[in-house]
């Protein structure tokens, strides 16, 4: 559970950086396109930053699944990110 929490926290940081907002504005279920106005280009930027940060490969066709921080965290964990890789 700690590993997922660490992943979640770092994903929040990435989203805040790309969306140019404060981390306190982002919750697990915050809808990135609707609430933070994350467009497709910003979504790609998040995808690339996540790949670099966690050493996972996410396909561009998964972009439509990346609508919340919780969804992004789940994708990273499902790709096999393990503790100690960061």
Give me some keywords for this one.
55% helix, 86 residues, mainly alpha, Non-ribosomal Peptide Synthetase Peptidyl Carrier Protein, Chain A
CATH superfamily: ACP-like
Largest β sheet strand count, sense and barrel closure: none
Structural class call reads mainly alpha
- Oligomer description: single chain
Number of DSSP-assigned strands: 0
Using the alpha-carbon principal axes, give the shape.
globular
**Average pLDDT value?**
91
**Spatial gap, N to C terminus:** 16 Å
Total separate domains: 1
Rg (C-alpha, Å): 12 Å
- The CATH architecture can be given as Orthogonal Bundle
Order of helices and strands: HHHH
Q: Which parts are unreliable, with pLDDT below 50 for 5 consecutive residues or more?
A: none
Task: Give the % helix.
Answer: 40-55%
Q: Quote the CATH topology.
A: Non-ribosomal Peptide Synthetase Peptidyl Carrier Protein, Chain A
How much strand content do the residues show? under 5%
Helical run tally: 4
CATH first level = Mainly Alpha
């Amino acid at each position: 559970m700690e590993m997922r929490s660490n992943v979640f926290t770092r994903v929040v940081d990435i989203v805040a950086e790309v969306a140019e907002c404060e981390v306190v504005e982002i919750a697990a279920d915050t809808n990135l396109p609707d609430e933070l106005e994350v467009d497709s280009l910003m979504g790609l930027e998040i995808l690339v930053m996540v790949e670099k940060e966690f050493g996972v490969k996410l396909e561009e066709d998964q972009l439509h699944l990346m609508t919340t921080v919780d969804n992004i965290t789940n994708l990273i964990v499902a790709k096999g990110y393990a503790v100690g890789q960061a």
